[in-house]
Amino acid sequence: MAxxxxxxxxxxxANALANNPDGARRIGNTYGLNITGEGGGNWKxxxxxxxxxxxxxxxxxxxxxxxxxxxxxDFQTLVADPGAGMKLFFAGKLKVKGNQLLATKLKxxxxxx
Length: 113
Prior knowledge:
By secondary structure, the protein is α+β, with helices and mostly antiparallel strands. It has 6 helices and 5 strands; from the N terminus they run ααββββααβαα.
């Protein structure tokens, strides 16, 4: 079943950060997610500040420690199977700019929910 991406970031993840700020700060750094296509969007996730936040943007995120760009359909695959990240990356369907090691911590971020 497809996940509602704006709800995932704006509500579910935002609530998880508010409920577990210490866990979010342990992950640390800033993440940008640009999910292209219908149902996608752009989000900046700040896990380094005293109060971790997730903020939606009208424009593509470019100023995070790691920026991930992926199509909406491939993001749905990633949500359903977090282990698919490497397969999507090597297939050129998941693009990573910045600190690529930080991208591997995304599964920890979504485990906070």
